[in-house]
Amino acid sequence: MAEADGAAEKVTTEMAAASLADPALEQSHGRVFIKTILNGAEEFVGRRVVVGGWVKTGREQGKGAFAFLELNDGSCLANLQVIVDAGVSSLAQLTPTGTSVLMEGELKKPPEGVKQSVELRVEKVLEVGLVDSAKYPLPKTRLTLEFLRDFVHFRARTNTISAVARIRNELAYATHTYFRENGFRYVHTPIITTSDCEGAGEMFQVTTLFSEAEKIEKELNQNPPPQESDIEAAKIIVKEKGESVSHLKSLKASKEKIVGAVSELTKAKESLAKLEERFNMKGGIPHKEGKIDFAHDFFGRQAFLTVSGQLQVETYACALGNVYTFGPTFRAEHSHTSRHLAEFWMVEPEIAFANLEDDMNYAESYVKFLCKWLLDHCLEDMEFMVKNVDKTAIERLKLVSLMPFERISYTKAVQLLENVTDKEFENRVEWGVDLASEHERYLTEVIFKKPVIVYNYPKGIKAFYMRQNDDGKTVAAMDVLVPKVGELIGGSQREERLDVLKQRILEMGLPLEPYDWYLDLRRFGTVKHCGFGLGFERMVLFATGLDNIRDVMPFPRYPGRADL
Question: What are the residue boundaries of the Aminoacyl-transfer RNA synthetases class-II family profile domain, all occurrences included (predicted)?
């Protein structure tokens, strides 16, 4: 893992040495990002630049002689102060909050005693996207995150959500960096699947049966199906045309006449087939033996939105070695808690020729890498979170990035929690019951005051693919618990023994057929391997200190809401 510890520093050095932009991609007007200007303020003073962004605040001064604009382009949290004279452009059009502008001017050093290090004196206004202040839904007043959930198409213009977006972006970039630096290959796993990874059954179904049924019903209403008499008449025509062909052949008629007669027979048969097809058309969902007949569905079988890419990415782990997938997953769970979404992103690595200890090592190393990456690359946004959301956010990242994680068995964790006397838990604690969020947070925030990895869980509360331990009661599973959110990562050594895996699938009440391909990995060249899944939104929650997962997903989906 030594190579992983220095990966962030190595990447930073490489980025500093390389050009950060492709000159061929420079926009025609040469727009400069506000972040670039503010980071090199002294070097930019006296230079002419073009900037574009959205007005955060605007006010006219000097009895309408000029206006101050606070401009933000999303490249960083800070705004660029812009001064526009009335002779350059209509100030009334520029000052409303939310107005988009593209401006050209000279960067000046502001007067002594002001907080800005540089400001733009505008000479030309190149483009303006007007805003009607009376109708703009985001006023300059402080807005609650709950209010902003009703305006997901605008909320990225606010300081909090834009900061979350940049933090999320850095965590995604850090994820790919970490796995690349450690020899993993990125695999795109399917979003549509025919197997249930978790065995929970809370999956969104993918089907065209309803749309096809509506289509057929509409077709039948507009063009009623033929009657039996129409079918019989068409059959008589086919019979007559067939007899005509036979008669011509018996007379040894010319080839031209026979070909013509065969052509008429073919047309008659096609006409009959179309009539029979329409005659047999029936509205509604197709059924067979009292159940929906998915053989008529798009994929010829039941299909779902994936709850995890793990099973599929295992196929590549059993060929390429160390791999990972990073993509959207879905769960049709009717939950309205602050921790659950119907659509969420998962980071799921799989490691070949590895056991549970290797799994825990990689999980700890990865989480530490993410925390250090944010401290090194996203400090301005993290400082905003400390000031406005959670005072301990940066302290928490430092703690996790520096301290070794505590590792305890599930049995030990239950013993510790059963002995707690200073707190009464809402959920009971006993061996064989899954730990609730309050238990997880108590372990990491109160007892150990650092991240905790709990391992060897009862098999009855874990998925079928987790390797059964020799005691017959537990599986080689582990969860990484962190302050603020509780479980951040769930992982395990996978069951590589064919007979044991088949038995576990049956014990869980699942059919073997959809997992036959998964069992093939054990039939042919089975290998010990392990993996884990990190809930990406939970990592963003942990980093930012925000309380509701709906505020760290750009377009959150949950029961009753799927905006945009």
Answer: 323-554
Q: What are residue 350's DSSP bridge partners?
A: 323, 531
CA distance 517 to 532: 21
Instruction: State the pLDDT at residue 20.
Output: 47
User: Tokens 């905003």 — which residue?
Assistant: 384
Write the DSSP symbol of residue 225: P
Residue 481 structure tokens:
């618990």
**pLDDT tens digits, one per residue of 268-285:** 999 999 888 888 877 788
Residues with Cβ within 8 Å of 339's Cβ and at least 6 positions away in sequence, in order, are: 437, 485, 538, 549
Q: Whose structure tokens read 């000029």?
A: 66
SS3 of residue 454 by DSSP: strand
DSSP at 186: E
> Could you give the CA distance from residue 555 to residue 564 in angstroms, rounded to a whole number?
8
Nearest alpha-carbon partner for 547 in 390, 395, 346, 347: 390
pLDDT tens digit sequence for 419-477:
999 999 999 999 999 999 999 999 999 999 999 999 999 999 999 999 999 999 999 99
- Residue 435, number of CB atoms within 10 A of its CB: 23
- Phi–psi pair at 486, nearest 5 degrees: 85, -125
558: CB partners within 8 A, 6+ apart: 335, 336, 340, 341, 342, 550
Contacts of 509 by beta carbon, 8 Å cutoff, 6+ apart? 199
Q: How far apart are CA 484 and CA 503, in angstroms?
A: 38
Q: Distance between CA 390 and CA 388 in Å, rounded?
A: 7
C-beta of residue 353 within 8 angstroms of C-beta of residue 529: yes
Exposure pattern of 157-190 as b/e (b: 16+ CB <10 Å)? Answer: bbebbbbbbbbbebbbebbebbbebbebeebebe
H-helix segments, 139-290: 145-148, 159-181, 209-222, 228-250, 255-279
Q: What is the pLDDT of residue 66?
A: 96
Q: Please classify residue 485 by burial: count the beta carbons closer than 10 Å to its beta carbon, then call 0-12 exposed, 13-18 middle and 19+ buried.
A: buried
Please give the Cα distance from 238 to 242 (Å, whole number): 6
For residue 169, the Cα-to-chain-centroid distance in whole angstroms is: 12
Cα separation values, 360 from 355, 383, 410, Å:
9, 30, 14
Q: Cβ distance 7 to 77 under 8 Å?
A: no
Residue 480 near residue 451 (C-beta atoms within 8 A): yes
Regions in the chain scoring below 50 on pLDDT = 2-3, 7-20
Q: Which two tokens stand for residue 333?
A: 């769970």
476 Cβ contact partners less than 8 Å away, ≥ 6 residues apart? 355, 356, 455, 456, 466, 467, 468, 469, 492, 493, 530
Which position has the token pair 């020729």? 353
The per-residue pLDDT for 529 is 98
- Contact of 381 with 166, CB cutoff 8 Å: yes
